[in-house]
Amino acid sequence: MSRVSVPCHVKGTVALQVGDVRTSHGRPGVLVIDVTFPSVAPFELQEITFKNYYTAFLSIRVRQHTSMHTPAKWVTCLRDHCLMPNPHSEEGAQDYVSLFKHQSPSMTFPKWLSHPVPCEQPVPLLEGLPDPSRVSSEVQQMWALTEMIRASHTSARIGRFDVDGCYDLNLLSYT
Amino acid sequence: MSQEESDISLIIAQIVQKLKGSNLYAQLERQAWASLQRPEIKLESLKEDIKEFFKISGLFPLPSHPAAPPEHLKEPLVYMRKAQGSWEKRILKSLNSMCTELSIPLARKRPVGEQKELLNKWNEMGTDEPDLSLFRPVYAPKDFLEVLINLRNPNYENGDSLSFRTHLGLIQVPLKVKDIPELKECFIELGLNTGQLGIDDSTQVPPELFENEHVRIGQKVLAEQDSAAAQQYVRQGSPTALRAELWALILNISSQPEDILYYEQLKTNVIQHDLLVDSLIYKDVKLTASNDDYYFVFEDYLYQVLLCFSRDTSVLSHFAYNSASPPKSYIRGKLGLEEYAVFYPPNGKSNVIASSIAPLCFLYHEPSKLYQIFREMYVRFFFRLHSISSHPSGIVSLCLLFETLLQTYLPQLFYHLREIGAQPLRISFKWMVRAFSGYLATDQLLLLWDRILGYNSLEILAVLAAAVFAFRAVNLMEVTSLAAAEAVLADLSTLKVMPLLQIFLFATVT
């Protein structure tokens, strides 16, 4: 499934602040960025990618058009998503972030993953064989993986640092 | 496959490629086959289950974001990258001016006669006494400290005047460092209820209580060649007799014939080409060896390892995760032509402190094995002490961790030392930047480095530095000058590191 980036217009930040911006001294802690999608047909948003710069928490609200007759509503997709675990330190401050459509809450994962067991005698698979088409697609993907490994040759272990046997250097370069 | 999946697949393929042929790979393969036999594992959902587990468990750092450029992987914070770039430029200028002042080329091919001569005295380069008076080190540790002190985050609201938000120490960047409760959790095996080598193997303690069993476990770990178990094991210290093998196991070093061949090839490179940095290496080794009663016997080894290291292009790969970049040059007469661009020195490192090799000479006597161990320790740990980055084991974080620990848990001492103009970091910096090599007694140093390997982190260096100050706090409170403070802390050779660490972390009332 191919993904296409949607052209969008990102407006400048607006500070949310009570009172007059000029007279009050406090620095606003909340900024709003409007993102519009001019002249684009309705689409299904899968992923939002951005580079953070010292934002600690992010909320995303979306105005959805449901049908021709009902007015568009604002829906909160994400509330206070934490980008910086400690806002007073650098962790996460300049990271690249992707938010996906399905930011599902933590799901339970199969027991065997959380309790890996040491080697035991192999147990014969008794009931229920897996779906052959799924297995074959998985096996195909693993095959593609091994091909990729074989294709990338081991680079020559002993690397040459000279050019045709010559390593006469004058000065270091500043670029 | 979606874009995300093919990115992950490529990374997995690369990791598998790197692991191939190693012991670890065989162990993983065996475990994987055994696990697959289990009935509760569904082959069709295997991939999704594992991906989900990785995300949720937080055990493994996720592959980096696909939009992140390579420099982001080296160092995510732009202002740190810039500072590292400026620092590197200074070093380049220093090297270039040394070249022009002394009229010595950066690199030249040795004439055949000279090559033969060097080959003959390869094992006794220490007997040479060349005139190195005109060579100065590329930089002094205190120059580097000044750069770290001047680091500023442009987004950090600090105000020009001293306020409660200003850091009282020298480091002014707001990196996240652990406090004692977090350190206790992290270094849990150093706790009072766990046996330690360096404490519970002292002569007064009967060996049946801890030491004998610990040695037995160590032998078992070696017999099974279990690298992960070895790493866990050395957190409680490694018995002297087993240490060399355990460290090799943890670092995944096994001396194959091709490794010995590789080392011989590096030696050939040293013989063929003479580099300006060789003189700097000579000078550093002479200084390290002559200053220390224990290290002088290894002088010849130090030359061999460092000279070979500087020719080793495989070291270049660590620059992917090092905030530093290798210096570049062009073949004489081909300035600006990319096909004649080379790195200088070939491994990209214009400074290596000989002191980080010397302790390893006690463990490894075969030059190619010593070389491999040193190289791996360098690209895993020690490079972080020489470049500016936000990594938790980077020198900036270590300095901040040290200052924060001291300030939080010994506030009176910290305040007093500041008042007399003896900022604690000015004294402890040189210990941390050399991982305490040359300051502690060798057996103590090796016990400390056991924990660096065991915990895969250099944070223990900052904790030890703070613990040393805590230990000598009474004397330090009485001094009235920086010189006097330095005198109190000049000799660390009698210190026992494990009791100091244990008391500081687990037995100090906070």
UniProtKB/TrEMBL annotation, chain A:
One of its GO terms (cellular component) is nucleoplasm. PANTHER family: NICOLIN 1, NICOLIN-1. This is Nicolin 1, tubulin polyglutamylase complex subunit. It comes from Microcebus murinus.
From TrEMBL, chain B:
Gene3D superfamilies: Ypt/Rab-GAP domain of gyp1p, domain 3 (1.10.472.80). It comes from the Eukaryota. InterPro entries: Rab-GAP-TBC_dom (IPR000195), Rab-GAP_TBC_sf (IPR035969), TBC1D19 (IPR042507). Residues 237-456 form the Rab-GAP TBC domain. PROSITE patterns: TBC_RABGAP (PS50086). It holds the Pfam family RabGAP-TBC. PANTHER family: TBC1 DOMAIN FAMILY MEMBER 19. This is TBC1 domain family member 19. The gene is TBC1D19.
